UniProtKB/TrEMBL annotation:
Its main location: nucleus. It is found in: Nucleus. GO terms for molecular function: 3'-5' exonuclease activity; exonuclease activity; nucleic acid binding; zinc ion binding. InterPro entries: REX4_DEDDh_dom (IPR037431), REXO1/3/4-like (IPR047021), Ribonucl_H (IPR013520), RNaseH-like_sf (IPR012337), RNaseH_sf (IPR036397), Znf_C2H2_type (IPR013087). Keywords: Exonuclease, Hydrolase, Metal-binding, Nuclease, Nucleus, Zinc, Zinc-finger. It comes from the Eukaryota. GO terms for biological process: RNA processing; rRNA processing. It comes from Populus trichocarpa (Western balsam poplar). GO terms for cellular component: nucleus. This is RNA exonuclease 4. Gene3D superfamilies: Ribonuclease H-like superfamily/Ribonuclease H (3.30.420.10). Belongs to the REXO4 family.
Length: 346
């Protein structure tokens, strides 16, 4: 009985999103319960396979172990930065020229804008304001291995500097890491203490709203973009942070983050953090990555947000027998993402 019509049985148990095949329907159901497939996942423009991250999509269309049909088309019409498929080789050329950004002049601009106070606070922009924050670390502790924030930069969505300053760490600096930070002891001697800088930044982010009142949608509080924002130990609601080190589509695996240097190279097409580094450059890179992710064109479903109670366990309300009777496409249709897709900010 089991082997009767086995091949059609197997294709019936094929995941409609990632195309994995299962011997038994109950295994596909189990897979759907834990994989949180959704319209927000990176998707191959050729075969429509859904991937958990851009890294796995890159492997799928470029290599080292690509799917041959997809690789062939991608090599003619695919953008190697955002991984979308264009209509023709010519459209690809035009698109890719715009998709690849350059960062050459950034570092020299940065120092011109050196500003030591938060002056821009006039609510000029309509809609939610977005700012990016980055810092440079020096070393503390006996072997200089404790990272201490010594310089921060905050920019707006148009890459204008809002705030750019040296910071005095709370414990003595034992390694200035001069070759990469360019920071000398005298720069930090009269700098603003870390606590004060954190407070200033928090106030700026809250934008007049008490922390407890900040909601993910509506309201005046600003969205904060950055890479590895935890390092700054800000007191700011997680729902307002967009961290390029923790965003599943930009991660290496579900546990490992890509470095900002790698992300900028792979997704924006230019080099950062060469030689002496300015946090302005990191701010710009994270803001550009954020904007690129936010501008993805996804269908919006009912209950699109990972934190909607309906989605907390998207299959919990269904009986196993009901799910086993569904087609793979029907199961995919009720499946929801377990992370907040940045396209929802737009
Ligand atoms: Zn799947
Ligand atoms: Zn999305
Ligand atoms: Zn494909
Ligand atoms: Zn592109």
């Amino acid at each position: 009985m089991e082997s009767r019509n086995e091949s059609s049985e197997i294709s019936r148990n094929k995941c409609a999103a990632c195309f994995r095949q299962f011997n038994k329907m109950e295994h596909l159901v189990e897979h759907m319960r834990i994989s949180y497939h959704s319209v927000h996942e990176p998707m191959c423009g050729i075969c429509k396979k859904h991937c958990r991250s851009y890294e796995s999509l890159r492997e799928h269309v470029i290599g080292p172990l690509p799917k041959q049909e997809c690789k062939n088309i991608f090599s003619i019409r695919g953008c190697k930065f955002c991984l979308t498929i264009l209509d023709s080789p010519n459209a690809r050329r035009v698109h890719q020229e715009r998709c690849q950004l350059s960062g050459g002049l950034l570092a020299s601009f940065a120092n011109l804008g050196l500003r030591d106070n938060l002056t821009i606070d006039n609510g000029y922009a309509r809609g939610r304001q977005v700012v990016a924050l980055a810092c440079k670390m020096v070393g503390g502790g006996s072997d200089g291995s404790i990272d201490l924030c010594a310089r921060v930069c905050l920019i707006d969505e148009n890459e204008n500097i809002i705030f750019h300053t040296y910071v005095k760490p709370p414990i003595p600096v034992t390694n200035y890491r001069y070759e990469t930070t360019g920071i000398r002891p005298e720069y930090l001697r009269d700098a603003t203490p870390l606590r004060q800088v954190q407070k200033k930044i928090q106030d700026f982010l809250c934008n007049g709203e008490p922390t407890w009142k900040i909601r993910p949608r509506g309201g005046k509080a600003r969205i904060l973009v950055g890479h590895d924002l935890d390092r700054l130990q800000l007191e700011y609601p997680a729902v307002m942070m967009r961290d390029t080190a923790k965003y599943p589509p930009l991660m290496k695996t579900s546990k490992l983050s890509n470095s900002l240097k790698y992300l900028t190279q792979a997704y924006l097409g230019y080099d950062i953090q060469t030689g002496m580094q300015d946090p302005y450059e990191d701010c710009v890179a994270t803001m550009r990555l954020y904007i690129r992710m936010r501008s993805q064109n996804h269908t919006i479903e009912d209950y699109p947000l990972a934190f909607d109670p309906q989605n907390r366990n998207n299959f919990a309300s269904w009986r196993q027998s009901e799910l086993e009777r569904m087609s793979p496409e029907e199961m995919f249709a009720i499946s929801r993402s377990d992370y907040y897709c940045w396209c929802l900010d737009s």
